Amino acid sequence: MVAFALLHSPSVGPSTWHPVAEELRRRGHAVAVPDVRAVASSPPPYAERVVQLATAQCAALNGDALLVAVGHSNAGLFLPALAHAIGARMLVFVDASVPPDTGSAEMVPARFAAELRRKAVDGVLPRWTDWWSEADVAALFADAETRRRVVDEQPQLPLAYYEERVAVPEDWASTAAAYLLFGPPYTEVAYAAGARGWPVAHVPGEHLHMVVDPHAVTDALLDLTAQLSEAR
Asked: Is the model's pTM score more than 0.85?
């Protein structure tokens, strides 16, 4: 059996992974979907708090199962530290940022940090879906109920969260890893993952495609995990 820890971006919430979690459980796998939204009301350092929250909620996955840590979007930056904390032997980055092999990563690129500073009010940002146009947000969802659920649970993160850097474990790059791409702006990140020898899969869709086609995303996760297992 394979056990999965599905980490959502702190910009959104855990329901972005719930449809895939249900599908994985239906196929006989253990799953944890930690909720790290409390980081929005936590003091810095925020990156450490995200990993602490996720680690505590993944404790039930410890055991004999092969443990895979999966991160979406901004959560990719925390994935190496989470894997180290919970003993995951494989990583899958899903339409996600990938941190450097050593040192630390910017939470967001400097050019985007300047844009976020313009959006902040009294040091607090609007919800993530409020950053974009109605057309962009509508394209993320297949139905109104899913949109309501995802939008309503979003935290309002402090601007300071995005101005922090995320430290990575020194040896994380030796962990078996794979990449699942939905589409831009992560195409170049997926290309770089393939260039370093990682298995890469492409399930075309928008950034929250996990809530649109959980069956296809689950298929891709399991296929990537199988490829990593064979390589070992």
From this structure: yes
